[in-house]
């Protein structure tokens, strides 16, 4: 606000100089001088006419006429004390002019300017810490649409004064993503990425914004950033989720299944997002041309008297209908919570030359391995399904102990 008033004051001073400077400058009273110059011009013209008339014989006494002209010119010369006099402006006129200038300027700005908006803008800019804290706090009430706009305005104001603040640009980009303002999100994330291209949070945010643009070039850049992040030692779950989404949008359904399966392994079956991922995987496999008949959906329950070791491992295997101990397909999961539903497909096949989808009938076994060694069974709890036909759901209860 101080900068605004300083700029307004400077403009007012410049305007005052334009008004006062001409008033302070003394003005010569040149009316008599102009009359003298005019008389001289008339005198010279009349002499030229006499010369012509003398040559043509119209004038007989040329010398006498010239004398009369000179006497007439001398009679019209202004007095010396009046010649070259000056006029000065009264100080009262200057003061009144300045007062009028200030009054008119302030009145016009008050009437037609945006002083109220400037004051509101400054108030919003001062609220940036409080609005940012509310945005980040999980316990505070969510910001309203009006407060979100105020936060964006305040943040843009600060970034105008600190354009090298990459965290500020990152925050503005995240707000743009949350508000579905794609242009703001991409622009802010791009500025943050230019300032700090090695920051993983900024890379992730920039990739997320680019993927929402719908432009093929932006999507390729985003995919490159995500693949680089996926090769890090620690991989953020959001990176895998965006890769899965990107693969599904490109109709790379096998890639989508791969990434969603990775997410399942990262979050575990006890996570509330696990069933949603399972549904996404089934949808992707259906788009690949794999029917649900080629998959085995197993609902697993645990008897009430079975102690479940939360650090154990759940092993699920599919066997031929004759009960062969060698599994055709198998999968290993963390124990998680029960009941739960798991889906096995050809990707879980164990035997070369035979896929799970080749079986017309099968048996499913599930075992909770308590020591983490799937090769040992002593003391483990298990359950086995009845012979099930291809395409039918499977239900089993873990109630027996080796």
From TrEMBL:
Superkingdom: Bacteria
Residue ranges of domain Cytochrome c-type biogenesis protein H Ig-like in the record: 297-398
Stored SUPFAM superfamilies: TPR-like
Transmembrane segments: 89-109
Keywords of the record: Cytochrome c-type biogenesis, Membrane, Repeat, TPR repeat, Transmembrane, Transmembrane helix
Span of domain Cytochrome c-type biogenesis protein H TPR: 117-274
Chief subcellular location: other
The keyword Repeat is assigned to this record: yes
Localization: Cell envelope
Positions annotated as TPR repeat: 166-199
Presence of keyword Phosphoprotein: no
Database matches in Pfam families: Ig_CycH (PF23892), TPR_CcmH_CycH (PF23914)
NCBIfam families, alphabetized: cytochro_ccmI
UniProt-recorded name of the protein: C-type cytochrome biogenesis protein CcmI
